TrEMBL record:
Origin: domain of life: Bacteria
Species assigned in the record: Prosthecochloris vibrioformis
Gene Ontology molecular function terms on file: protein methyltransferase activity
Residue span, Tetrapyrrole methylase domain: 61-188
GO biological process, one term: cobalamin biosynthetic process
Keyword Transport among record annotations: no
Keyword list, A-Z: Cobalamin biosynthesis, Methyltransferase, S-adenosyl-L-methionine, Transferase
Pathway(s) where this gene product acts: Cofactor biosynthesis; adenosylcobalamin biosynthesis
Keyword field contains Cytoplasm: no
InterPro entries, alphabetized: 4pyrrol_Mease, 4pyrrol_Methylase_sf, 4pyrrole_Mease_sub1, CbiE, Cbl_synth_CobL, Cbl_synth_MTase_CbiT, Cobalamin_biosynth_MTase, SAM-dependent_MTases_sf
PANTHER family linked to this entry: COBALT-PRECORRIN-6B C(15)-METHYLTRANSFERASE (DECARBOXYLATING) (PTHR43182), COBALT-PRECORRIN-7 C(5)-METHYLTRANSFERASE (PTHR43182:SF1)
Entries under Pfam families matching the protein: TP_methylase
Protein name as it appears in the record: Precorrin-6y C5,15-methyltransferase (Decarboxylating) subunit CbiE
């Protein structure tokens, strides 16, 4: 393994400035790494006959070359190597390596300075090779200043369309392109104007402003679009909030909502616990469009929807990195309560919970029996009568 990495951050400037120590280290090194863009910037500084390892997918091949390089390697990266940067990747692959980091401004710092914008309150989200999860969370929480790192799929235009789709059009987008280089441009646009605009591949975004959409704690049942002709096919608001409490979602990371119907439980959970990874399962295909429209209506992006019988799905793809799930709500089981319970119990993390809302006594008894089969603890049941409807029992099973 290489004895030491020197990780040097670059802007897009074609005339980089380094301190004397860094210049000396570049002069005596023989193995360098970075993207092709970085090589174009620093190539004139590299010693004759030096070796360049291009950092590009597949990353496993890059790490193998770095591991086999031996001796010191100078790595060039963009901005601050420890801000969503390659420095963290090196630390992951080579936890025992000695590293020295020479940061430049990150692109978002540079953009904030171009705007003369104090950025101590800025929240950050990276979409570079990642899901929308970080950005969705900040939108739901109503963050007033968000710095966003983009990629070639999740572009400023794609961000703008997401803002409009879920009702967060009160933000403006400040797009910084090729910052520090000859093609630098800074533009502020509304989501509508940005939604079909084209930008330089090297860009970042600052979202700022408001007004923000209304936030809910307990969404009225009447506000949801329901199944046509089936107005009672929804987990009522009082039950919904009590169910979320029984699921103990405040301490969870991965949540499954099985039989989501209108999506009321998943949407309420998403708005109250925006850091949750939520997967919602439903076999009635007419519910997919209903869910999507309700999610947009209430500003709840980011719930993963899986259509089809949960017993025939590859559910492990929707668990955490360790294959575990922290909370499962069985909102519908179609007579397959035991089989669905088994799938959930086999993947339940320590402290995790399975919850059902039982209308019938036999459902409650079957739930209790399956919990005992899996040696799960059964807290006291909670009975609620929502309005003029029949009493419903919220039962929970806990993995100790």
């Amino acid at each position: 393994m290489s004895e030491q990495f020197i990780v040097i951050g670059l802007s897009d400037s074609r005339s980089p400035v380094f301190d004397p120590q860094t210049l000396r280290e570049i002069a005596v090194c023989r193995v360098f790494a970075g993207g092709e863009r970085h090589r174009a910037i620093v190539g004139h500084l590299l010693p004759h006959a030096s070796r360049w390892i291009t950092i590009a997918p597949p990353m496993s091949d890059v790490m193998r070359q770095l591991d086999e390089a031996g001796g010191r390697v100078v790595v060039f990266t963009s901005g601050d190597p420890l801000f969503y940067g390659f420095g963290a990747t090196l630390q992951k692959y080579f936890p025992d390596a000695s590293c020295r980091f020479v940061p430049a401004f990150s692109s978002l710092q540079t953009l904030a300075h171009r705007l003369q914008l104090p950025y101590q309150s800025m929240r950050f989200a990276s979409l570079t090779g990642r899901s929308w999860q970080e950005l969705d969370r900040l939108l739901i929480e109503g963050a007033g200043l968000i710095g966003v790192l983009t990629d070639r799929c999740k572009t400023p235009a794609a961000i703008a369309r997401r803002l409009l789709e879920y009702g967060y059009g009160g933000y403006s987008l400040v797009v910084g392109e090729a910052l520090g280089g000859p093609e630098e441009r800074v533009t502020e646009l509304s989501p509508a104007d940005a939604s079909d605009a084209l930008f330089h591949d090297l860009n970042c975004v600052i979202l700022r402003g408001g007004p923000f959409r209304e936030r809910y704690y307990g969404i009225a049942d009447s506000l949801f679009e329901g199944l046509p002709g089936r107005p009672d096919m929804i987990t009522k608001m009082q039950l919904r909030l009590a169910t979320l409490s029984r699921l103990n979602l405040v301490n969870c990371s991965y949540f499954w909502d099985i039989g989501f119907c209108t999506g009321s439980v998943s949407i309420e959970a998403r708005l109250q616990f925006p850091g949750l990874e939520i997967t919602a399962f439903e076999k009635r295909f007419e519910c997919e469009g209903i869910f999507e429209r309700n999610a947009r209506r209430f500003g709840a992006p980011g719930v993963r929807v899986v259509m089809g019988d949960v017993l025939k799905q590859g559910v492990d793809d929707h668990a955490g990195p360790d294959g575990r799930v922290d909370a499962v709500f069985i909102g519908g089981h179609g007579g397959q309560l035991e089989a669905i319970f088994d799938i959930a119990a086999e993947r339940l993390s320590p402290g995790g919970r399975i919850v059902v809302n039982a209308v019938r006594t036999d459902t409650l008894e079957r739930f209790h029996a399956r919990a005992r089969h899996h040696a799960l603890r059964l807290p006291d049941d909670l009975a609620i009568t929502p309005g003029r409807h029949n009493p419903i029992t919220i039962a929970a099973a806990v993995q100790e």
